[in-house]
Design a protein that fits this description.
six-stranded mixed sheet; 11% helix; 3 domains; binds (dicuprio-$l^{3}-sulfanyl)-sulfanyl-copper; binds dinuclear copper ion; five-stranded mixed sheet
Length: 624
Amino acid sequence: MTMHRFCHFLTAMTATIVLAACGGGQDAAPASHAERTYVAPGEMDEYYLFYSGGHGGDVRVAGIPSMRHIKTIPVFNPNAAYGYGYDDQTRAMLGDLTWGDVHHPALSKTDGVYDGRWLFVNDNAHNRVARIDLRDFKTKQILGPIPNTAGNHGASSVTDNTEYVFGASRFATPLPRGTVASLDDYADEYHGVVTAIRVDPETGEMSPAWQVLTPAFQWDLSSTGKGPSHGWFFVTSYNSELAHTRLEIGASQRERDYSAFVNWQRAAEAVENGDFERIDGIPVIDPARVPGVMYYVPLAKSPHGIDVDPTGQWIVGGGKLEPSATVFSFEKFLAAVKNQDFVEEVRGVPVVNPDAVTEGMVPVGLGPLHTQFDGRGNAYTTMFIDSKVAKFRLPPWTDQEKADLEQVVIDRIDVHTNPGHLVVGGSDTRAPYGDWLVSMNKDASGRPLPTGPQIPETSQLIDITGERMTMVYESFTDKEPHFAQILRADLIQPIGFYRRAENNHPHQVWSEDDAFVRRNGNVVDVGMRALRSNFVPDNLEFQVGDTVHFHITNVEQTNAMSHGFGLSGHNVMVDLSAGETRTVTVTLDRPGVYPFYCTVFCSALHQEMQGYIVVYPRGQLPNN
Ligand code: RUQ
Ligand code: CUA
């Protein structure tokens, strides 16, 4: 028995002895920790955890506190388990791209708190934003590529009433898309943009609203204001040097890069007043020509995350190469703007004196990235290099504390290893939940059972209800989670099936008698009904060259009673939720007999739920 296992063995017997015997390290989880995270079989978790799947392109759903995986929601990636990308509707949504890079999920809000309607996620690779409907946990819209943007990393940040989802371009490019300029002319010919995406309050339908033009900085990550800072959007950049090669050196020269404070209400007015130029179909505001739309605030050094606290007063930025978290005061920012306390101008945009805006720099440790809030006046910052999460108290601070801000650091906890994002439920709302924190760590070495050169990442669950943080659980996640959102489970009531009355597919078939095969030349429409445990019709005849539209209705009106339509030898796998009709189009190019069958184990006679298509050579179709 290794020492490690020995400790766990003892844990089961008596927690106190273990703490003494094993030095009380994080790994020696006493039984009380296990109780905190234990959700008995048959019981449900208190929270949903929605975490991004990175370049896997999907979003995963787990429960908190158990950390049990519940479901995967395909977004930018085909996923045969859900027939996603295998029927006409989802194929059209994906277009030609079969991968995307999901970084930051963001929940919709009403009045500054989560309303449980939608989850927005960005695609860092192809400049898109998608909307998942939390009524049925399915992707409903993929917007993009967003014009004038490359690498929409700076999304998704949602405003207090989901007026907008914001994003910003990571990779500057010549504008509009398709324009070519030498990288030697990077500083002059390349540009970044901040993008506002409008969200329809009824349907959630997203549309590009407007953009603000910036120099060729690389925009990183963003957040939105609330309370006193409602109407503002904050985003960091990490390449004020305007380097275009070997960025790890070139973009790490200056002590401070810029964060941008964008007044989105002012920007929306400017668009109404016609103060913009249309580039690639979208209004683009030059902030030099519309004063008050944007200010730069210098932030140390090669900043990454920028997060607004629940009161909307404190804005915390993490500089990867600066061992402290910078806390800006929004009130001081407004005062500095009023007093025109500017240190320079960058392309006509005022740069606010950082000393006038900075409340303090909290010496959290090495490699601060992202910060979350518990709603009790505390902030939690991940430190990539130190592999820790630091907890510190937000202002107001006493003069004595200001003189030595180490005094406001309450706790630091080891995480394993190299944390990127962390998440506290509701941190970006005015009312965080403040009980759990998940640290999402990039390097899981030595944690899970070995799986060869490709290993998962770790998500560690930390109890933050006490003064000190307590690590209670660790789960493994397939790569590559970036950020996550936590939602109280009682805020949503997902449907169990689609009611017949809401089916508006033109070729829905609800009874055996209505099933049809309609041939028009070499185009054939098949209206098929799926029900436990048969397809009607089940034997079909075609000839080579036919284009067949299968319209299949799952007529079940029972919770979670899915069927699947898998066609052997063809790239067809339609997943049919109860009550929905889906269409898949296939052009038959080879003679032969091809079985199809239900892919979902739906009933005792599920295995019998099958049929054939007989594809005759061209011109040999009987009775034709
Ligand atoms: S990033 S690990 Cu793409 Cu959100 Cu910071
Ligand atoms: Cu339907 Cu199996």
